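Problem: given the chain below (267 residues), write out its structure.
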Amino acid sequence: MHNQPLRIDFDKVRSILRNGITRADLFMGIGLNASTHQPAISHNLTNNSGIHIQFTKETLTDDETKHVNEEFGKWIISNGLRELLETFSIFLLNLYFAVYFLADQKTKDSIKITPKKFEKLGISQQLIIISEIIEVNDDDLNIINSLNQLRNCYAHRNGRVGAKDLDEETKKFSVSWTKIHTMIEEPDGTISNIEDKIGVPLKGGANVFSKVEIETVHFDLNDEALVTKKQAKEICLSVFSIGERAFNNTVKFAQKMGAVEFKPKRI
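Solution.
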């Protein structure tokens, strides 16, 4: 029996990241838009179940409807971010398969974590292990760690900040992600956020530029760790950017190992 060459399809690995981001963005969009839709969408699961099963009132008051929709919006974000990070973990596992099997013996001896053991680690630890083989910057590690703690807060404490979420020094729960700031610079050197200038005539025109900064929100003990629709969108982009960097560095690692075959471009 001849040994078959190991083939890693990096396009498929990358699609895990892209599909995960797309699903989270799409489903959170549908859910959050539904939670604010007017008139309110029916809350009844089904009216034709054969046997009549009713866990809620068939008709809600206006106040009850408002409360249910607010809670639904929170539920959508918590589940959307949970799926986003779980898919990112699957993506990391596939990256790890690649770097583990392509690594030389010296690298394998230094990490000593098989893919089977890697799969059982938390997402923060997974990214730390990968960073021992490919380049992952500290900001990316810190962002994923904070988002994973946010997921834990949703999963184990219904989104209410607990003692386990707090930083030992600041006594705050801090959640971070990267955000693209679009700025404008006027001829006199004044720099403003583009949102502040929408609909405002600019004499002499202006230059538009963007910069990426880390956005951080802080919560106190027993606060609800609420994330807005805009912030959820930014988090999706942030996780995508982190995944892209990890992916590109994995491809570079494979190139270094002499294991990448490039498809000829179609003319």
